[in-house]
Structure formats: C-alpha cells, structure tokens
Amino acid sequence: MNSNTKYNILRTVLSISIALLISFGIIFLTSKEPVKAIVQLLTGPLQSQRRFGNVIEAMIPLIFTGTGVSIMFAANEINLAGEGAFHLGGLVATYFALNTALPAGLSPLATILVAGLFGMIVTAIPAILKIKTESDVLVSSLMMNYLILYFSNYVLSNILRDPKAGAVVSFAVPSVTQFSPIISGTRIHVGLFIAIAVAILGYIFMYKTKIGYELRITGENRDFARYSGINVVKITLISQLLGGFIFGIGGGVELLGMYNRFTWTSLLGYGWDAIIITTLAKKNPIYVPFAAFFLAYLRTGASIMSRSTDVVTEIVIITQGIIILLVVAEQFLSKYRHKLVAKEAKAELMEREGE
Amino acid sequence: MIVDAILSPEFLNNTLRATTPILFAALASAIASKSGVVNMALEGIMLFAALFGVIFSAAFQSAWLGLLATMVVGGFIGLFLAFAVLKLKTDEILAAIAINLIANGATILILLFVSGDRGISSSINSLTIPMVSLPVIENIPFIGTVLSNQNILTYISLIMVVVVHIFLYKTPLGLQIRAVGENKDAAESVGISPDRIRYISLILSGVLASMGGFFLSGGYMTRFTTGMSAGRGFIALAASAMGGNTPIGSFLVSLLFGAAQAISNILQLGTLPHELVQMLPYLTTLIGLGIYSYSRMKKRQRLMGR
Do B275 and A314 make contact, defined as CB atoms within 8 angstroms? Predict the structure, then answer.
C-alpha cells in the first residue's frame, strides 16, 4: 500500500468519525435520551434480519446512483440531473409496465432498459446544451430536475392515477413485472445483483477500456486530453449518456423492487446522495457498493432511532454534509500527508544508499 | 382572458413580488461570481434564512431586528463557505452542495427543536415586514398599481440593484473584487490579497441571499415551510449568469423569472393542469440560459475570428 492510498483511507475514516461525533454532539444537545438514540443509530440495523434487510434494500438504489454519478463526474462535468433521471426512470418504468404485456422474464428487463433510455435523455439535455451553446451544465441540469418533477406529477395525476386508491398513486404494476423478494423475511430483490453488476461493469468501463481511460484523462486535464488526440466532446457526452442510463435503470429497479405503484410526488434526493457516495468512493465504481452500504446503514440506523426515540432522521443529512465537506477538503490533514510522503521518500533514499 | 390577466397592472405587481427573493439571491450570486467564486450555496443560505427569520422575528418581536439577525447568520454562512473553499481548498461546488444538504437537514431539526412542529412553523408567532403604499405614486394610474402596495423588502431589493451596482463599479473595494475575479494573479501582483477579497465577497453574498430568504417566510409568505426555497437559489444562479453577473443584468433576468413565476401563479387558477404550469419558471430558465450562452458563444467566436 503506498502512502497515498494509506493517507486517503485514513482521511476518509477520520472524516466520517468527526462527522459522526458532531452528530452525536447534536443528539446530546437536543435529545432527552441521547445514549439510547446513539445506540439505536449504530447497532439498530443489526438487531434483526428484517432490519439488516432494510440496509441492503436501501443500498440498491444508492449503488446505481453512485456509479452513475462517478462516471459523469469522471469527465469533470458537474451534471446534477441524475436526480431527474432517476425520477423519470421510475415514472417511465411504471408507464411501460402498465401499457405492455410481455412474458414474465422479459417484462422487468425491458421495463428497466426503457427506464434507462429515458434517464439517458435527462442527463443528455444539459450535456448537449453545453456542446451546442456552451451553457453551464450545473444550472441547466438543476433546472432539469424540477422540470422532471412537475412533469412526473402531471403524468401521475392525469394519466397513471388510480382513481380507486385514496392517495395520489398510480395503478399497480402487474406482478409479472415486479421484482419479488429473494430472501424471505426481507424485501431484498433481484435488483441487488443488477446493482452490483452495474458497479463492476462501471469499474471495467472506467479502468479497463480505452474509452474509460480517455474519460479519466479528459476529466483530469481537458487540454492535455485534447492535445493527445482524444475527442473530448465525444468522451464527455458518452459519460453523461452512460451516467443517465444507469440513473434511469436505478429508478426503474427501485420502482419494480420496492414500490408496486408510482408514488413519488417530490424529488427523492438520490442525486444528492450519489454525490456523497462518489466522494467516498473517489469516483471509482468498484468502491461504490461499500460507500452505498455505509450510507444505507446510517440511514436505516437513523430511521430505527427516530422510531424509538425523539431524534429525527434528518440528523443523517447533516452528517452527510459534514462528511462531504471534510472528505473533499484538500487541506484537511495535508500536513500529515506531507509527513507521510517525506517519510516514504526518506526510506527509499536510505534503501538506495544501502545498496 | 389569460392575456388580459397578464397585461394587467396587478400582474406586474405580482411579478415584482415574485422577483424579490430571486433578485436578492441573483445579486448575491453576482458579487460572488465577480470575485471568481460560484456561490451555489445560495439555496441553502436562503433556506436557513427563511427559518431563522421566523425564529428571530418571533424572539425579538420585531421584524426588522429579525431581519438584521438573519443577515448576520447569512454572513456567517458565507464566511463558512469562504473558509471551506479558500482555507481548506474544498471544491466550491461540493462545499456548496454540502451546505445545501446541511440546510435541508438542519432546518427541519431546528424547527422541530424550537417549536415541536414538523414541516411548518405555524406555532411560532413570527412577524413579517409590512407592505406600504407609496404616497403620490399610488395615485398614478397603472404605475401606481404596479409599484405601490409592495412589501418594503421588495423596494429594498430594487434599491439594492443600484447599491450593488455602485459598490461594484464606483468603489475601490468593488474594483478590487472585479480585479480578483478577472485575473487573480494580476490582482495579487499589485498588492491585492485575493483571499481577503473573496472572503469579503462571499460574506456579502451570504448577507444578500439571506435577505431573499427572509422575504420568503416574512413577506412573500408568513410562515416557514420546509424546502421553501424551492430551487430559487439555483434560478438566481442562472439569472446572474445570464445577466453577465452585473447587477442591472441580473435584475432584468430576475424580472423575467419573476414574471414566469407570477404567470404560473395565475395560470394555476385556470383550466390548464397546474403541474405543467409549475414547470414554467424552470423551463424559462433553461431556454433563456441556452439562448444567452449561445449568443455569447457566437460573439466570442466572432471576436476570435477577427
């Protein structure tokens, strides 16, 4: 293990610890039963099979969004439309499942692929707008999310709404299209395997293919990439399309696995969750499942905590924000890094002198 | 019928009202951008300000003292962003995303802690900045209806356009801010500290954005509701970008978005499906941004070609 990896691991662990300590501080300040709350937060998910199942269920969409945003951000393009792509993926999956009659095995597969294609359109619009007009992807991708939200609300209440249901929800997706649980006593579904496959494929794409290599070069130094003969516009577009596709599939899988009706009337925030995951995973899809597990564990713990004590789940959002701040702060622990690098160089020097 | 509604002075009055929070935030964004930092935390700052506005105005039982205290909080969040970006060398976008996330969680937490409510601050006895009618002007037909009977903060936001313009273009500090934004190294070579200037710019940016946030819960509405900034901070980012980060430009584009918001408010009462009408401000932003960027790109290409 070289000093850089060691340093990165230490820094990530320390950032998470500090963020958790700050959250514990807030819990102590605001709660009447702080110790119980913290114990529930940290150990709650381990107390039963069903609860641990909840962690794995929550991890599935996070793996998709984390992988998607890792690929999009690898091009050094801050495209935040993943949120909208995920949302539209869920909507399109519902629409497609309700309006087609495909055989059992094919139906869920076709549904999530169509969801992926629509997700791709969502992240493509800001990317193409940038290519054609040089407009800022950050702002246009944020606008996309709101557009998708209200569009989905329109489709939900005017086209998909089940008038017999009390709340504003769509008709139920046919059971042949739904993912059924694979472990009894939990709601863990086949989407888990799809998610892990996507993360592995994402890793292979980024680290074992020519396009992936070009993508990483483009992200690190656009001018250098251009002078090396890489078509940076094409590479960037590919990464945005692929990212949106994964987000869309993620939305479709989440809907078929965890919901049987489309009920999303506000943005779910998966686009923002994806950012903390990609920060922890250092834009490498292979680490995404671990980061997703961590966040899912924390979320599930928070939800258990909020049910049994007076602390609300939103405490975790604050923890998330602090983790992002610390992990991406270059100067955080930079002195230590300097020491580490110096020590390693000295050791190397000694070794050579010895020869 | 809808056309009549849009041409009416009442509509323009509503437009100014809807423009106010966006305008404050757009001016905030303009100052930060002029110094060379994108302040994407506007959204979170506005959300924090909307909540603290309610809490402080109730605590002091004075809307004005509440506004003042909220502005201090806004300044501190700006300072925090500056510290993260300049001292800790955090990516400015990721730092802002973190602040926005913290705002989402913390406002819910604080609201619950202070009032025991979830979602809306109905049990907090907060005050609002009053509306005023302008003497003399209110008697002018049409213009009177448009301009008079607005919230005082709306008038302040309009005055701030002029103030920020003078600040950026007629004062030494404004010149330094623009110099740092244009060319950091050149500014440094003549003895300006870019970090100091950016600290100041981001603090001012935070203060301005917090005024917009205060207006949301203490003027536009009378209560705080969770997530009430509803993307206005992001729209403001677009507004100032499209306005070339100048106060006047930002104002004009903010007016356009305010009008889109006001049209959407009117149309929601009509027969069109309200969900589609709600898309209007965001769609206007997206298309406007595209057109603006395209024309700027063409202009740059023309200049380069020469």
Answer: no
